[in-house]
Write a structure and sequence with these properties.
With 560 residues, the chain is α/β, with parallel strands linked by helices. The protein has 19 helices and 25 strands. The longest helix is centred in the middle third of the chain and has 21 residues. The chain is globular and about 70 Å long.
């Protein structure tokens, strides 16, 4: 019976070779078919390769040009030489199997295989942040199947995350499940959400390699790994907090980018308030426990300091009267706070924070110890809670990818958000930046930048699908992409606490425009963010939380 299958495979190879090579010059499909046929019974993968090889003909029909030979050689034959595996995938392959050939180990992984000619092209999206979720929201699922791979199943509305740390808002008010943003992920047969981390990308084979984010012993293996084939790949994996390689930051500081980090800050803050009331503690120890230090004077650091000051002035003084005079907040910044804002607004923020108990320190952190910070001038700053908010940089995953990099280490893209050195790969959000060859500046890591890039790319994919099957792999070279992506800054906002905020609606520092501060700015800040929250459900939650806090104060219950 095995010989029968081999014979049928040989006949199919001959038939497909004749079809693929019609017209004189050998095509990539024909070359790949001849290679597969030459393997014959020696390769256990040869007979299973013809489905993928048949798809190579599509690349020939679409005029993929130079890209077609890559598709034929790598997607056509399962026994890919190990040299074609990405650096990030090679150790993964070594762990998956004890066999001598890493390619066989990778081939043994469970997978979501290549799409057939009768299927919709598949778009794989890495990430669930602002850029990824805006793309998922707008992508046309009647044309594409969508697969989202992310270690979290929700999007975080980061501008309001600081408010959750002190109980102004509940955590569920600032998160939106990915399946609500794009219902096709939960309902369409060809679309999926995978709770996993992407650990490697093979741009030649059009595959991503994933490891399940939350390991569970109930799965067949732990860690559980799999691979997903794509027609188009959108990398929107975000960035990681910058630590500047300062010793002790990773071990002792808490970042403020995810909900679990906000929960950790809230637990630590409330725990320290309660522990400080225990008998026998010295004055120095009480002051250390109740000293909250924020490193980084950007919008996140300033807004958290303002929220913390509000919490202390309004709630702590009433509910922790025994230790109210020990609670202090210090904001450490190497340069000027809110450096992207107008000079007058920066001065207003400085005066306001100082007036309501936030001590501003200009300095550079040299080392972080478990109970104190050491500054470059030798000053030691004891702390009970340390929040680190000094900006973001490329993640280890982005650094590991063998793709061109823009200034700053992000994935390099052109004016259409494509990664120009490989086919069918796009990058957007905090993990991407324009290459120097585009003569465009690298855009700031802001939510509004990521959101507009996601919206633009969804429209671009719609154009690709409408033109001669451009949505499929290797078929996007000869389509009209329309206008390139253009970013226009609409302004910045930041709350500084006590019903005050800053609003700067200028395109840049040197441009003219509206810049204001005070109560009216605070009303504008809240109104703008209330309208930008992803769903009506969350808008209702946020409005109710704000009203509840105004009437009853913040919740100081420690859970967990």
């Amino acid at each position: 019976m095995a010989w029968s299958r081999i014979a049928r495979s040989s006949q199919l190879s001959q038939s497909l070779s004749r079809i693929a090579s019609e017209g004189g010059a050998p095509t990539p499909a024909a070359s790949a078919l001849r290679n597969a046929a030459a393997l014959g019974p020696r390769s256990r993968h040869a007979a299973s390769s013809f489905h993928s090889l048949a798809c190579v003909g599509l690349a020939d029909k679409c005029g993929a040009g130079a890209g077609g030979h890559l598709y034929g050689q790598n997607r056509g034959i399962s026994a890919t030489p190990s040299r074609l595996l990405p650096a990030a995938a090679e150790p993964l392959a070594a762990e998956c199997s004890d066999t001598e050939d890493p390619a066989e180990a990778m081939a043994a992984l469970p997978d979501l295989g290549p799409t057939g000619l009768k299927n919709k092209p598949r778009v794989v999206v890495l990430g669930s942040g602002w850029a990824a979720c805006r793309f998922l929201k707008d992508v046309d699922t009647s044309v594409y199947d969508v697969v989202c791979v992310s270690p979290r199943n929700h999007m975080v509305f980061t501008p309001l995350l600081a408010s959750t740390c002190v109980g102004t808002l509940e955590f569920r008010s600032v998160v939106e499940p990915v399946s609500r943003i794009q219902p096709a992920l939960a309902t369409r047969p060809g679309s999926y959400f995978f709770l996993a981390n992407c650990t490697g990308i093979d741009t030649r084979k059009h595959e991503v390699y994933c490891t399940v984010a939350a390991g569970d012993e109930q799965l067949p293996t732990n860690p559980y790994r799999f691979r997903v084939a794509y027609d188009k790949l959108v990398i929107a994996s975000g960035a990681e907090p910058l630590t500047f390689n300062i010793k002790g930051v990773q071990d002792n500081a808490i970042f403020l980018r995810e909900v679990n980090e906000a929960q950790q800050i809230r637990r630590k803050l409330l725990t320290n308030l309660m522990l400080s009331e225990n008998p026998g503690l010295s004055e120095a120890e009480k002051k250390r426990l109740l000293h909250c230090v924020v490193v980084g004077g950007g919008p996140t650091g300033v807004e958290f300091s303002g929220e913390l000051s509000d919490f202390i002035m309004r709630d702590v003084r009433d509910r922790y009267a025994h230790v109210k005079d020990y609670v202090k907040v210090t904001l450490i910044e190497a340069n000027e706070i809110l450096s992207s804002f107008d000079v007058g607004l920066r001065q207003y923020a400085t005066n306001h924070l100082s007036k309501y108990g936030v001590k501003l320190v200009k300095g550079v952190v040299k080392e972080v110890l478990p109970t104190e910070i050491v500054l470059s001038d030798g000053t030691h700053v004891p702390y009970g809670l340390l929040v680190w908010s000094t900006g973001v940089g490329p993640s280890e995953f982005v650094k590991s990818l063998d793709l061109p990099k823009s200034p700053g280490g992000r994935i390099g893209i052109d004016e259409y958000l494509r990664v120009p050195s490989v086919e069918d790969v796009y990058a957007l959000g905090d993990c991407a930046g324009f290459l120097e060859s585009t003569k465009r500046p690298v855009l700031p890591a802001l939510a509004q930048v990521a959101e507009r890039e996601g919206k633009y790319l969804a429209q671009l994919f719609k154009k690709l699908a409408a033109q001669n099957g451009g949505g499929r792999a290797h078929c996007g070279k000869r389509v009209d992409l329309g206008e390139p992506f253009v970013y226009k800054h609409i302004g910045s906002m930041a709350s500084v606490g006590r019903y005050k905020a800053l609003v700067d609606l200028r395109e840049n520092k040197d441009a003219k425009g509206v810049s204001m501060a005070g109560f009216l700015s605070w009303v504008m800040w809240r109104s703008a963010y209330l309208t930008r929250v992803v769903s009506w459900r969350n808008r209702f939650y946020v409005a109710v939380n704000w009203a509840t806090t105004l009437v009853f104060g913040r919740d100081n219950t420690r859970i967990g």
